[in-house]
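pinned: reference chain
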Amino acid sequence: FVDPVILLMHASRRVYYLTAAASMRRKFIGFYGRCLRGIPVERQQDLAKTGAGTIRLDDRYAEPTLITGINTRFTEQLKVGMKILLPKSAGQARIDEIISDTQLRTSKEMKELEALEALTQSEGTPYKFAPHIDQDDMYRAVYQRLNNGECVGIFPEGGSHDRTEMLPLKAGATIMALGATAANPELGLKIVPTGLNYFHPSKFRSRAVIDFGQPIDVPSDLLDKYRQGGDAKRQACNDLLEIVTDGLKQVTLNTPDYETLKLIQAGRRLYQPTQHSLTMAQQVELTRRFIKGYNTYRDLPEVKELRDRVEDYNMQLRYYGIRDHQVETMQVGRAQAGALFLWRLLWLLIMGLVALPGTVLNIPVFIVTGVVSKRKAKAALAASTVKVRARDVIATWKILIALVLVPLLYTVYSVLAVFFVRRAPAWAQPFTASVAGWPSFAIYLCSWALASFMSYTALVFGEQAIDIVKSIRPLFLTLILGQEHTDLLVAQREDLSNDITELVNELGPKIYPEFSNTRVKDQLGDDKTMHPNIINESADAFHRKMRE
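pinned: its structure tokens
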């Protein structure tokens, strides 16, 4: 639920989102979903139930659509038109015929390798079944919004996840686009691919980049195919889905796994495009280019050598417990490191004293959000086949709980403050005498404001304190190891950075012909561009060139 809120804040047009009907049925989330005029859509996975027994294929060659059950109750639990769902999204098929309690026939063969492996086990495989879902009402609601000139937001992957690459997109978005345009050729519908790239998605006040891609028009030839119906209609939807997928890949980061993403991010940090710091949007775009370059040249000997060196450098950073940007901090002598170490410890102590009251006030929030979000993440991981660490679930529940718990907690504190002032013991009366004559409501409001101010102060000072804590370890290592040892790591980073920059400058023009003349460091500028319907805070000259 974090993604649509962020987009609502940064899109100049009001966006109405397709929302899972299961979420709309929840009291709290459903209330806000209806307030935002969300369009409910039933999802198959939300209605799926576990079937009795297990199922298998007796003869995958002669009878590939004949499913045999072991201790199943097909006639009791299933109906023609329902779908059989295999574990871990291995495969699914619609039921065409129910022969008996232990035999049924599907409309198609489940050819996926994972499906065949599951169905050919001697003991069979567990399964779920889901009813046929009629989405006509949902499509009518979408068409009505579009014909009214409104903007509809869709998450075409069908659900949230924290993988490093996109899931296969659902065809619903293309059916909506083609169907609405076929019914109203003057609609002027455009599809705007939008990428959300989070830096630390499960951490509070972390950064994110919203990247709006080039609007996609519905091709007229695909519209003609869609009107023909049948196979031509399905082909039109598939062709438009490929166009949308390509558009989304231009605004998102996609790698096969976290290890590759970490390698790419390390290479991007070590690359020297400019003497100036890059904006978040530039960092994301540069990472995207690194991914494309790595996928293209990963088998070259020089790329393999650099990959091994980057992995070795990352391993040393983990050994010392520091980050790449902290290596430069180690370029000081022992005397200077000692002075900085003591000064930062002192400053950390001062910040801690300032932030302490607000931190104490919000301890219940920290405890409850931490415990509940971890439990929800664990449940989501157990129920999902696509989530890796459920960081999206953690972030969502931290926000939802804080939205309710923080105001409630401050209200309790304010009521207690009024009670304390009115019933102050003798030892506290000198401290409460100045406000004892105030109306209770005034004391309540001032207490609420004070609690908010103390919390904000703790937040601001806490963020600065975390940065100081991170900088202490490199200084401590310099004190312990001496500059001659830390200089080795600094020199290793410098050599690696120079070699990566040289290789990128050599291979870059082969992928991007304009690279030699429009290198990143030459494209930094202050010019801003803005899509007429969408806000893009960091679409500068650099970003425009990167999209070409």
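why pinned: The CA atoms of residues 373 and 394 lie 5 Å apart. The radius of gyration is 29 Å.
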